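Subject: design request, 284 residues
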């Protein structure tokens, strides 16, 4: 389990009385070079988005990010539960901040200040947990990011989803959680932090070394009543039964964190995560 999960769980302990976790870990071999047609062992077909309607599209043609809850911005610059994590401080947008518009998309940069503190960025499509929060959340559908990841020992970028309702359990889906120390795979993980104990399934998706950092790739997840399926470049790489706790709206988060239990002492210079878009769809 990631240190982000441990930090997230510590924030929720007072709310849902969480216990210790036993995580199921599997290794899935899957080769998907950036910019190429992906192939899996069963030649699984690419997801057919013609069966879906778009519900959320963010190409970052303008940066609508705020550190203030209740603002009219599209993104909130912190976790909605006051549980920021990692070895870089997530900071608000502004001059010299971590968010920069690109010709196509946005860049999140982690940089080390003259005070020796690393600073970086996170965006959340919702500003507060619970049904009183504002921002985008959706029950079921397909959720996707197109991004180029940083390459360095200690970088920890992610695209993930959190369930709005935490009254009985907290639900998390890590569409991609990447540790730069291990450039040959990334994590696709489902979590339920519940009163009766934690349930996690962590799948390692193997890719050619550095293929996620030298070009753009898409990382997606489809949540349906029967199965939750992970996608790399729109081809399925892992599927599991959808737990009942996922029958609720989920909101979106993307971040460039550092650490995650691994040292950042070998990081030198700025580290960047480039995001071309973040989209969501629902079945027609």
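Subject: RE: design request

Done. Sequence follows.
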């Amino acid at each position: 389990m990631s240190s982000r999960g441990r930090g997230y769980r510590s924030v929720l302990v007072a709310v849902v009385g969480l216990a210790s976790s036993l995580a199921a870990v599997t290794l899935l071999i899957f080769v998907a070079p950036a910019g190429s047609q992906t192939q899996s062992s069963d030649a699984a077909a690419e997801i057919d988005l013609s069966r879906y309607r778009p519900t959320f599209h963010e190409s970052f043609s303008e940066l609508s990010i705020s550190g203030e809850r209740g603002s009219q911005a599209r993104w909130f610059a912190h976790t909605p539960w006051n549980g920021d994590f990692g070895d870089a401080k997530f900071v608000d947008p502004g001059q010299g901040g971590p968010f920069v518009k690109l010709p196509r998309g946005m860049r999140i940069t982690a940089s080390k200040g003259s005070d020796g503190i690393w600073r970086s960025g996170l965006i959340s499509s919702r500003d507060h947990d619970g049904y009183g929060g504002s921002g985008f959340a959706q029950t079921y559908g397909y959720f996707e990011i197109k991004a180029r990841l940083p390459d360095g020992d200690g970088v920890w970028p992610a695209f993930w989803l959190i369930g709005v309702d935490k009254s009985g359990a907290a639900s998390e889906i890590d569409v991609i959680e990447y540790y730069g120390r291990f450039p040959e795979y990334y994590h696709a993980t489902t979590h339920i932090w519940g009163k009766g104990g934690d349930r996690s399934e962590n799948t390692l998706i193997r890719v050619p070394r550095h293929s996620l950092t030298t070009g753009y790739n898409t990382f997606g997840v489809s949540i349906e009543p029967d199965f939750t399926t992970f996608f790399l470049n729109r081809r399925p790489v892992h599927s599991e039964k959808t737990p009942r706790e996922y029958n609720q709206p989920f909101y979106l988060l993307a971040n460039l964190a550092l650490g995650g239990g691994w040292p950042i002492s070998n990081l030198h210079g700025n580290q960047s995560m480039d995001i071309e878009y973040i989209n969501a769809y629902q079945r027609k």
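The first strand starts at residue 21 and ends at 28.
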